[in-house]
Amino acid sequence: MRKNTYLIFVLSVLTLSSCFYRGNHKPLIGGIREYREVRLPADDYSSTPSTPGIPSTSSNPSTPTTQHSTPSNPSPSTLELPGPMSGVSEQILYRTGYVTSYNKDHRIPNWTAWHLTADHTTGPYKRKGVSYREDEDVPAPRATTFDYQQSGYDRGHMCPSGDNKWDPQAQQDCFLLTNMCPQNHNLNGGDWNELEMKCRKWAERYGDLYIVCGPILYRQKHKTIGRARIVVPEAFFKVVLRMSPEPAAIGFIYKNEDGNRPMGDYTNTIRQVERITGIDFFPQLPDDIEELVENQASLDDWR
User: Residue 246, SS3?
Assistant: First the structure.
């Protein structure tokens, strides 16, 4: 009898705890509530270099050092760069128009970040004639164009072609497969594309934006495509920061599936996206501004 009484007590506590959690957290898109990626040992990743163009060093000789390509027109600001990740494979690649944290175990980025200015929202260097290509700066096995053929998934840009028409090398760089994730065709050409176009309008309106986007892996096991076994994300995130006319930030989460929904249905705070991904966004912001912008998200502030 005493055992039964104790069991009933424990079950009651667990039920109350579950109710409290649901009552104090906004449901995220598709019911995603926490980041469940299987982490690698802490010594199996490369940290972010402190200065763009300067590779980091590693005390573990078996761990590849962070590789990079020096931009021909580097951004003077690194406000868009997330904090170093812990316990995941991370190789930082610097490109003309963006920076990406590449995961050699998944063959996709952990994140891609860029500074989108009003001047970069248009230009003469369009995607016509530019080919997708293998990125030889990362170790094999790596994604090739053959991996995507007949896979049922698009080569989904993280930093989009439309944000790189301002420079010929930037346009070329954004077609490297290290800037791609397997993405649902309807999402890639639909709601995700609408967000990309909206960001360009926001950059024109506010002068510039700091953007980070990437995959979300919330299952224990992930679907893969191709001989390289490229991981197919279950969802994608994008976070956007502006500093004028006043600091504001907004986050989005899209499941990697068909859908046609209002942008507000995908909206989340930066803090919620951080909880899902385990990534520290905009760590260079002053603490008071970071606290303010990361806990608020309203499309009304971005009209």
Answer: coil
Residue 207: how many other CB atoms lie within 10 Å: 14
**Residues 266 and 276 sit within 8 Å (Cβ to Cβ):** no
CA distance 188 to 120: 21
- Residue located via tokens 């919620």: 272
58-74 per-position pLDDT tens digit = 323 333 334 444 443 43
Residues labelled catalytic: 157
Q: What contacts 24+ positions apart, CB below 8 Å, involve 61-67?
A: 64/91, 64/104, 64/139, 66/90, 66/91, 66/92, 67/91, 67/92, 67/93, 67/137, 67/138
234-262 pLDDT, tens per residue?
Answer: 999 999 999 999 999 999 999 999 999 99
Global pTM value:
0.78
How many other C-beta atoms are found inside a 10 Å radius of the C-beta of residue 244?
A: 9
